[in-house]
TrEMBL record:
GO terms for molecular function: SH3 domain binding. Involved in cytoskeletal rearrangements required for phagocytosis of apoptotic cells and cell motility. Acts in association with DOCK1 and CRK. Was initially proposed to be required in complex with DOCK1 to activate Rac Rho small GTPases. May enhance the guanine nucleotide exchange factor (GEF) activity of DOCK1. The keyword Membrane does not apply. The keyword Protein transport does not apply. Gene3D superfamilies: 6.10.250.810, Leucine-rich Repeat Variant, Pleckstrin-homology domain (PH domain)/Phosphotyrosine-binding domain (PTB). GO terms for biological process: actin filament organization; apoptotic process; cell motility; phagocytosis. This is ELMO3 protein. It comes from Burhinus bistriatus. It holds the Pfam family PH_12. Residues 302-475 form the ELMO domain. InterPro entries: ARM-like (IPR011989), ARM-type_fold (IPR016024), ELMO_ARM (IPR024574), ELMO_dom (IPR006816), ELMO_domain-containing (IPR050868), PH-like_dom_sf (IPR011993), PH_domain (IPR001849). Keywords: Apoptosis, Phagocytosis, SH3-binding. It comes from the Eukaryota.
C-alpha cells in the first residue's frame, strides 16, 4: 500500500547527535518530534541544511519534499536575540561574527521579521551613522541591511537623513573598501525608485561625475553597481531632468568611454550590464519622442526658419539676384518651385507635410542636420534629382519624412524600456548624434536604391520597403560602428535584395509541390522527435534565471536544470558569475511525475500578483510557471530571452506528454525539413517535379521476355 500523499520521509540532524529518519505529516500543525530529549523544545526550529537554509514554518512546511535533510537548530526568535546581543558586544571579533551571521540569516523572512521586531534596524543605523567601523564589519552590516530591506517590512522612506548621507559618503570617498562601495551603490539604487524625495536627495549628493569615476575603475562589479545607480536615476527622473542628465553625460563623452572600455573590454559582457546598456540606449533614443510626436506649427518663427534654411542651403548659389529684388508674388512663386524641387508634396505650404506626427518635427530636425553637417551630400541629392525627368526624381523631403518614421519604428523610439531585454547596438555607443548620423547614411541609401530600381513617383512605397529591408537585415549583424554599417548596407544593394527574395521564393515554391509536401509529412515525425530530444538536452544543461520583483530588477540569480534521466527538475540560488553549477549543488527538487500543467503569460501567478502595477508586456511574454504536486504549488520562471522561453516551454510540454507549441518549434522544423528535403532532392536538381505522378503503363500482352530461372538451376 503506497504511503499517503501528505506524508513525507525526512532526515533530521543535530550537532552532537545521531541523525534520525522520521515521517512528517504535512497537513497536521506542529513541529515533527524527533526522539531526542531537549529541554525548552520551543527554543528550537527546523532548518534546511542546503541552499538558503530557510527555517521551516507552518506556512512553508507543505513544500518539504521526500528525502529532505533538515537541521534542528536554534529557533529564529532565539537566534535573533543572540545576534542582537552579539552585535552590542565590545569584542570586535564577536561583533564581526554576529554581523556576518546576521547577513546570512536575514535572507530568511521568518528570522528577518524576528530581528526587525527587536528594533534590530536601529542597531544597523547606529553602526553606520557612528562611522567607527570599517572594512569587513561595515560590509557585513550593509549586506545585512540590504537583505532585511528586501522583505519590504520597512519602507525606504523611513530612513534617516544621517544614515543616507553616510551611505552617500561611502560612494563619494576614494579610500573605501570596494565591497563597501558596491553595497552602498546597491542601497542607493534601491532607494531611488521608492519616492521623489529620495531620488532628489541621491541625485543631489551623488553627482554624475562621481558615477562616471566609478565606471572607469577596473573592478567589474563596482562598474556594474555604478551603472545600475545611473540607470535608476535616469528612469526615476522627469523628462526635463532626464534630458539635462543625458546632455551632461554626452558632454563627458560617456558613449565613447562605454564603447571602448565596457563593450570592447577584455572581460566578456555580462547579462546585467547588457541590460543596462540596452536601457541607456532606449532612454537616449526616447529623448527624440517629444519632437517625434510634435506636429509643425506654421506660425512658429523658429520652425519656419529651419524650413527656409533647407531651401536656401540647396538653391542659394542658383539665385544670382537676391530675393529681395523680386516682387512678393514672384518671390512666393520662386519659393514654391524650390520647395517642389526639394520634394515637398504641398509646395505652396510645405509645413503641411510635417503636420503628421509621428514623425513630426523629428523629420525636420533630421533634414536640417543632414543639410548642415553633410552639405555636399545634401546639395548633390537635391540638385541631382532636380535635373531628372519629373517622373524619375526622388523626392528628398517626402523620403526623409517616411525614412524618419521607419527608423523610429526599427529603433523603438517612444516605447517603454523592457525589464529583461539585453539587445543593444554596439555602434550606438560609438557616436554622439547616433539617430541623426544614421539618418544621414540611410537617406543617401534611399537615393542610391531609387536609382538602382529606376523608380518613379508611383514606386515610392516599394522603394521605402526595400530600404527598410536593407536597414533591418544590416542591423541584424550588429555592426560595431556606423562606418561598418554604412559599408554593409551599401553592399546590400537592390540586386542583392532581389537575389535574397528570389532564393526565399524558390525555396517556398519547391516546398509547395505535391510530392514534396507528401515527403515533408513523412519526414515530420522523425524530425519532431529530434527537436524533442534537443529540447530535453537543453533542459539538462540548464539555464540561469533572474528573480524580478515589481519594485526593481534584482541581482539575485537561480539556476534550474533537468536530471539526466529526465525524472527530476533541480533548482536553487546561485552567485553572480556561476554559469553551469553541478546538479548536486542545486538543493530544491520537483519530480517530473508530480508536474500537473504548464502556465504561460497572464495565467502565471507571479504575473497576476503584479497586476495592480504597470504591466510590462516583455515580462508577460517571457513568464511561465510549472504547477506541481497535489497542493498545486507553482515554480515560477521569467526567461532571460524569448529563445530560452521557447526552449523551456517546449521541453516542459514534452515532459508533460503534450505538443510543443512555441514559434521556435515551427522555425526549427522548417529549417530541418528544408535541409532534409534538399539532401533528398539533390539528384533532381534542375528537373521539374510534376504535381501528379506519371501514369503507369499497361501490362504487356505476354511475358515471354522474362528470363526463366528454372533452366539455369538444372
Amino acid at each position: 500500500m503506497p504511503p499517503p500523499k501528505d506524508v513525507v520521509k525526512i532526515a533530521i540532524q543535530m550537532v552532537g547527535a545521531i541523525p534520525q529518519l522520521i515521517d512528517l505529516q504535512q497537513v497536521l500543525p506542529g513541529t515533527p518530534k524527533p526522539t531526542w530529549s531537549l529541554p525548552n523544545a520551543e527554543h528550537y526550529a527546523l532548518q534546511y541544511t542546503d541552499g538558503r537554509q530557510t527555517y521551516i514554518t507552518e506556512s512553508n512546511r507543505g513544500e518539504i519534499k521526500n528525502g529532505s535533510i533538515l537541521r534542528l537548530t536554534t529557533s529564529p526568535d532565539q537566534e535573533a536575540e543572540r545576534l542582537y546581543s552579539g552585535i552590542q558586544s565590545n569584542n570586535s571579533d564577536v561583533k564581526t561574527d554576529s554581523l556576518k551571521k546576521l547577513a546570512s540569516l536575514s535572507q530568511d523572512v521568518t528570522f528577518a521579521q524576528e530581528y526587525i521586531n527587536r528594533n534590530g534596524l536601529k542597531q544597523i543605523f547606529y553602526i553606520v551613522e557612528e562611522g567607527n567601523d570599517t572594512g569587513d564589519m561595515l560590509a557585513h552590516t550593509l549586506k545585512a541591511f540590504m537583505e532585511l530591506m528586501e522583505h519590504d517590512f520597512v519602507s525606504w522612506e523611513t530612513l534617516s537623513a544621517a544614515f543616507i548621507k553616510k551611505i552617500v559618503s561611502y560612494v563619494n570617498m576614494n579610500a573605501v573598501d570596494a565591497s563597501v562601495q558596491q553595497l552602498s551603490l546597491s542601497i542607493l539604487e534601491n532607494m531611488v525608485p521608492t519616492s521623489r524625495l529620495l531620488f532628489e536627495l541621491v541625485k543631489k549628493e551623488v553627482t554624475l561625475d562621481r558615477l562616471l569615476t566609478h565606471l572607469q575603475v577596473t573592478n567589474a562589479q563596482l562598474q556594474l553597481k555604478a551603472m545600475a545607480l545611473l540607470i535608476a536615476l535616469l528612469l526615476a527622473a522627469t523628462d526635463a531632468e532626464r534630458r539635462d542628465m543625458m546632455d551632461y553625460l554626452r558632454q563627458k563623452n560617456i558613449r565613447q568611454f562605454i564603447h571602448k572600455n565596457i563593450i570592447h573590454s577584455s572581460e566578456p559582457l555580462g547579462d546585467e550590464m547588457a541590460h543596462y546598456l540596452y536601457v541607456l540606449q532606449s532612454v537616449s533614443l526616447n529623448l527624440c519622442e517629444r519632437r517625434m510626436r510634435t506636429s509643425m506649427d506654421p506660425y512658429s518663427q523658429e520652425q519656419r526658419e529651419l524650413l527656409q534654411s533647407l531651401r536656401q542651403t540647396a538653391f542659394e548659389s542658383e539665385n544670382e539676384a537676391p530675393a529681395s529684388n523680386f516682387s512678393t508674388e514672384r518671390r512666393r512663386s520662386l519659393c514654391a518651385k524650390e520647395f517642389r524641387r526639394l520634394g515637398f508634396v504641398n509646395n505652396s505650404n510645405p509645413a503641411e507635410d510635417l503636420r503628421r506626427a509621428p514623425p513630426g518635427l523629428l523629420a525636420l530636425d533630421n533634414m536640417v542636420y543632414f543639410s548642415r553637417h553633410t552639405p555636399n551630400a545634401y546639395s548633390r541629392f537635391v540638385l541631382e534629382n532636380s535635373s531628372r525627368e519629373d517622373k524619375h526624381e526622388c523626392p528628398f523631403a517626402r523620403s526623409s519624412i517616411q525614412l524618419t518614421l521607419i527608423l523610429c519604428e526599427i529603433l523603438h523610439v517612444g516605447e517603454p524600456c523592457s525589464e529583461t531585454a539585453q539587445a543593444f547596438y554596439p555602434m550606438f555607443f560609438g557616436q554622439d548624434h547616433f539617430f541623426e548620423e544614421l539618418f544621414c547614411i540611410c537617406i543617401q541609401l534611399v537615393n542610391k536604391t531609387w536609382k538602382e530600381m529606376r523608380a518613379t513617383q508611383e514606386d515610392f512605397d516599394k522603394v521605402l520597403q526595400v530600404v527598410r529591408e536593407q536597414i533591418t537585415r544590416t542591423l541584424s549583424f550588429k555592426p560595431t560602428s556606423l562606418e561598418l554599417f554604412k559599408t554593409r548596407v551599401n553592399a546590400l544593394n537592390y540586386s542583392e535584395i532581389l537575389k535574397l527574395r528570389q532564393t526565399e521564393r524558390l525555396h517556398q515554391e519547391e516546398t509547395l509541390a505535391v510530392p514534396v509536401l507528401e515527403l515533408r509529412e513523412r519526414l515530420k515525425p522523425e524530425l519532431l522527435e529530434l527537436i524533442r530530444q534537443q529540447r530535453l538536452l537543453h533542459l539538462c544543461e540548464g539555464t540561469l534565471f533572474r528573480k524580478i520583483s515589481s519594485r526593481r530588477r534584482q541581482d539575485k540569480l537561480w539556476y534550474c536544470r533537468l536530471s539526466p534521466n529526465h525524472k527530476v527538475l533541480h533548482y536553487g540560488d546561485v552567485e553572480e558569475g556561476v554559469h553551469s553549477p553541478p546538479i548536486e549543488s542545486l538543493p530544491e527538487k520537483v519530480p517530473v511525475a508530480d508536474m500537473k500543467m504548464l502556465l504561460m503569460g497572464k495565467e502565471c501567478p507571479h504575473t497576476k500578483e503584479k497586476s495592480s502595477g504597470k504591466q510590462n508586456k516583455d515580462v508577460l511574454e517571457l513568464a511561465f510557471s510549472i504547477v506541481y504536486d497535489v497542493e498545486e504549488y507553482c515554480l515560477n520562471f521569467i526567461a532571460p530571452t524569448r529563445y530560452e522561453f521557447c526552449l523551456w516551454t517546449d521541453g516542459l510540454n514534452v515532459l508533460l506528454g503534450k505538443e510543443m507549441m512555441s514559434e521556435r518549434t515551427q522555425t526549427d522544423l522548417d529549417v530541418l525539413l528544408s535541409m532534409e528535403l534538399k539532401l533528398r532532392l539533390l539528384d533532381l536538381e534542375n528537373i521539374s517535379i510534376p504535381d501528379t505522378p506519371p501514369p503507369v503503363p499497361k501490362p504487356p500482352s505476354n511475358l515471354n521476355f522474362c528470363y526463366d530461372f528454372s533452366y539455369a538451376e538444372q
